[in-house]
Amino acid sequence: MRTRIKMCGMTRSEDVEAACQAGADAIGMIFYPPSGRYIEVSQAEKLAQHVSLAVDKVALFVNPEVNFVNDVVAATGADILQFHGDESAEFCQQFGRRYIKALRVKSAAEVAEKIAEHHQADAIMLDAYVKGVPGGTGQQFDWSMTPESIRHKLFLAGGLNADNVGTAIQALRPYAVDVAGGIEQAPGIKDIDKIFAFAEAVRQADALFIENSS
């Protein structure tokens, strides 16, 4: 199985175009004002026009109002919604879009409980727990706390870059890997070389896995 790639925190059209050219399967835009990668809806509407048809547009929220989510979907045509707050499964399901529920890994028991609550989510994203920060910390978590049962729909995040994503793929075989800081010069400002290097590292890891499995 090919590992999917999501490149998140996009704010510039040239970065979106590079991500699509590099082979990203999804690009993410963050609608959470405290984030250094926050994007206004009007700006995101223009950015969405640069996304290739084969690439999913992901809109990321943290405890949003219903009307705000609807406004973002209408403006951007978001294919997937990603929720990083305390949103209930009922809340996440009401928008008629696929959704990713992001969970910060604090303990294996807590992760298992949250996964059970969001069993209807199209994907589960696991990220490092940092107090007061809903995601995008750039830190890794203990991968051993990842339940085997969700790996078929696991989006792995947390400190990934071209140097370590291969190790992560070999260890967990996630459905997808998610990167933001690992392809940046500064928050929201991507590095084109890092974008292509990350995508190539994922492809190499997949090829190695196939080779070792044969």
Automatic annotation (TrEMBL):
GO BP term (any one): L-tryptophan biosynthetic process
Pathway in which this enzyme or protein is active: Amino-acid biosynthesis; L-tryptophan biosynthesis; L-tryptophan from chorismate: step 3/5
Database matches in Gene3D superfamilies: Aldolase class I (3.20.20.70)
Catalytic activity: N-(5-phospho-beta-D-ribosyl)anthranilate = 1-(2-carboxyphenylamino)-1-deoxy-D-ribulose 5-phosphate
Annotated EC: 5.3.1.24
Gene Ontology molecular function: any one: phosphoribosylanthranilate isomerase activity
Leader sequence segment: none
Occurrences of domain N-(5'phosphoribosyl) anthranilate isomerase (PRAI) (ranges): 6-200
Keywords: Amino-acid biosynthesis, Aromatic amino acid biosynthesis, Isomerase, Tryptophan biosynthesis
Family assignment from sequence similarity: Belongs to the TrpF family.
One Pfam family, short name: PRAI
Name of the molecule in the record: N-(5'-phosphoribosyl)anthranilate isomerase
InterPro entries: Aldolase_TIM, PRAI_dom, RibuloseP-bd_barrel, TrpF_fam
Top-level taxon of origin: Bacteria
Encoding gene (name): trpF
